[in-house]
Design brief:
The protein is α/β, with parallel strands linked by helices and 661 residues long. It contains 18 helices and 14 strands. The protein has a 7-stranded mixed beta sheet, sandwiched between helices. The longest helix has 25 residues. It starts with 7 loop residues before the first strand and ends in a 53-residue tail after the last helix.
Length: 661
């Protein structure tokens, strides 16, 4: 399945336009291709025609097979109808096929019925299919009856096949214009490139993506792997009736910063790891309807640039904050002030939701549930970093998503419920005074599901956005990676004629965790709460949210891409520039928390440093205006240490000077 949203393609073009070369480049990456030649052999004395055929044959890689259909025009319909889902067919071209169809040797024949049969075969084809055809509709009307019959029949065939195909491209002077659907967002190696050889000198211009060629598992061998194979307990579904006042959101945990304990010997919940959890606020029925085109708030257009301009006046040595100026501008725009303050109240939303089927290949059974238990116990990278950043942690269970290669990931009503539930979580955070949300996720198959969403929304190719699969032993599992690629490819093939609207993408491909994350982004936007994205689930949710409310992405900040190719692509599409390149692989959310102190430091400097003395700021030996001289450090007295919670496996109190709130 091509990940640009089409599975069958018609390539139109004039004489010597380059249509055949471009069609060949589209299937160059397929392991095997069946080339269907439709043109008759022609007059043996016509050397020019024979040379054309020889040129076409010479371009085909040795791995391709050739099938001739010139002896019987009905044979083309049979070949297309009989091709299986693992086959790739290149038909070149329909002009030769119409010539044979109108040949007196095959008369009487019903060309209208035969063309209709061809269109029906293309529409129902399970193979990957590219058809080439001359575009004769722009030429003069022929003066002979046979010429008019040919152009009429070919025009009818082109219209019927174009209607049946997922995509149509028109090639003019070697340049490709996409008539159906819109032009893909990226290109592939030039035409003339084959799996066995490098690009030719006369390579045609770069065009759409190549085919995904990862092997597809047989249906009777597709045993669930990872979390789908064994779970300790199914994830609790998001409540469907979100208007009821007695529906309770997950508890909010407040981690306490403490000295690092001795290595834990168990992942079971301990005692004394958290301060008393805050009370979950009741939900209020508001008649919330989430639909495309919602008008949500935008950050302030003026305060962001003003804050960045103000940095040039501060008493900073050297070039200043560098790329962290973006943090100051973002905070100023989202806070509505040119002097933004560091975020004091931060909440981490950890969404735990597994995906069944091939997308979870290579994932350890029950791993995401263990990570969630670990976070609740105050252990693990996410909880420790949350404690160091004085951030709350809220763990949310999303519905388990079905195998997307076989059926929709989530029913439509559960998608609606997940969106509203995520919105309510953001509202709860805003009502509690949270100034910044960190969106995190853990779940088997989440990265591959996010890749499927990227394929449907940005025209990505699964192998380019799916990271390597790392086992528990730290080894690379290429077999599991290929199974994931195949699962995404098959899901896109299954949904190739489905709507690409936001809720349909979530239902067919995204599943519960991405739907819930999308709701969080929309609710945070509505309440003007900025969000730190970290990982594939969050960025996939941001991609989907564009159709529902384009303002959402302006409230998002991406500290780091984490070395994940899917996050890189989503960032490019969303216009989000990663601030650092740490390449940490600590799990979703942990990288954002690791970078958060750096972001806070930039905001602290922007908010507290005076202007440079040359611009009216205090002189080194002058009065600062508050009774102190410029030589006196602006340090606060250290707070006395009070009693705090104990650490895991230790009776020692929190060390003096460390906050325990």
């Amino acid at each position: 399945m091509s990940v640009d949203g089409w599975h069958t393609l018609l390539v139109l073009g004039g004489i010597r336009s380059g249509k055949s070369e471009i069609a060949e480049s589209l299937v160059a990456d397929a392991p095997t291709v069946r080339y269907v030649a439709t043109a008759p052999a022609g007059d043996p004395e016509d050397t020019e025609w024979a040379a054309r055929l020889a040129t076409h044959r010479a371009r085909r890689p040795g791995s391709w097979t050739t099938e001739e259909t010139a002896a019987n025009p009905g044979r083309l319909v049979e070949v297309i109808a009989a091709a299986g889902p693992n086959e790739t067919l290149l038909v070149d071209d329909l002009g030769g096929w119409v010539t044979v169809l109108l040949d007196p040797a095959h008369q009487p024949a019903d060309d209208t019925a035969t063309i209709a049969e061809l269109a029906a075969a293309v529409r129902s084809s399970t193979a990957r299919l590219v058809l080439v055809s001359p575009e004769v509709g722009l030429s003069l009307v022929p003066t002979t009856p046979l010429g008019r019959a040919f152009t009429d029949a070919l025009g009818a065939a082109n219209r019927a096949v174009a209607d049946a195909c997922d995509a149509v491209a028109l090639v003019v002077a070697g340049q490709t214009t996409w008539l159906k659907p819109a032009a893909p967002a990226h290109t592939v190696p030039p035409a003339g490139t084959s799996p066995e050889a490098g690009p030719s000198r006369d390579a045609a211009p770069q065009v759409a993506t190549s085919w995904a060629t990862a092997p597809r598992p047989a249906p009777d061998q597709a045993a669930p792997t990872g979390a789908a194979a064994s779970r300790t307990a199914p994830a609790q579904a998001v409540p469907a009736d979100l208007g009821a006042g007695d529906v309770t959101l997950p508890e909010v945990l407040t981690p306490a910063a403490a000295p690092l304990p001795a290595p834990a010997t168990s992942d079971e919940p301990g005692t004394g790891d958290w301060a008393a959890p805050t009370m979950a606020l009741p939900m209020i029925a508001t008649g919330l309807v989430i639909q495309p085109g919602m008008e949500l708030p935008m950050p302030d257009d003026y305060t962001g640039p003003q804050a960045v301009d103000r940095l040039a006046t501060l008493d900073l040595p050297g070039a200043g904050l560098g790329v962290l100026e973006q943090v100051v501008g973002f905070a100023a725009a989202t806070q509505g002030t040119s002097m933004p303050r560091p975020w004091d109240s931060v909440r981490v939303l950890l969404i735990q939701g597994d995906h069944e089927g091939g997308v979870s290949a290579g994932a350890a059974a029950g791993e995401s549930a263990r990570r969630a238990r670990q976070a609740r116990a105050g252990r693990g990278a996410l909880a420790r970093l949350a404690a160091e950043n004085r951030a709350d942690l809220q763990i949310v269970e999303a519905p388990t998503s079905a195998p997307i290669e076989d059926r929709p990931a989530l029913p439509g009503d559960e998608v609606e419920a997940a969106l509203r539930y995520g919105w309510r979580l953001a509202e709860q955070a805003a009502d509690a005074g949270v100034q910044l949300l960190v969106l995190a996720a853990c779940g088997a198959g989440a990265e591959a599901a996010a890749a499927a969403v990227l394929a449907a929304t940005a025209g990505a190719e699964p192998p380019t956005v799916l990271g390597r699969v790392i086992t528990e032993q730290g080894e690379i599992d290429d077999t599991a990676w290929m199974v994931r690629c195949a699962a995404v490819r098959d899901a896109l093939h299954r949904t190739r004629r489905s709507s690409r609207e936001a809720k349909d993408i979530l239902a067919e491909l995204g599943g519960g965790d991405i739907a819930l994350a999308t709701g969080v982004l929309l609710g945070a936007t509505a309440r003007k709460v900025p969000v730190l994205l970290d990982g594939p689930v969050g960025t996939a949710a941001a991609m989907v949210s564009r159709d529902l409310a384009g303002q959402a992405r302006h409230w998002c900040l991406l500290p780091d891409h984490g070395g994940r190719p899917g996050v890189r692509l989503a960032a490019d599409v969303l216009g989000l520039t990663p601030l650092v390149d740490l390449r940490l692989d600590l799990g979703e959310g942990a990288t954002a928390l690791a970078a958060l102190p750096l972001l806070r430091s930039a905001l602290t400097l922007a908010a507290t440093l005076p202007a440079h003395p040359s611009l009216g700021g205090p002189d080194d030996d002058g009065d600062t205006g508050d009774g102190r001289t410029g030589d006196e450090p602006d340090f606060a007295e250290p707070e006395p240490a009070g009693p705090g919670p104990t650490t895991i496996g230790s009776d020692e109190p929190v060390s003096p000077g460390r906050r325990a709130d």
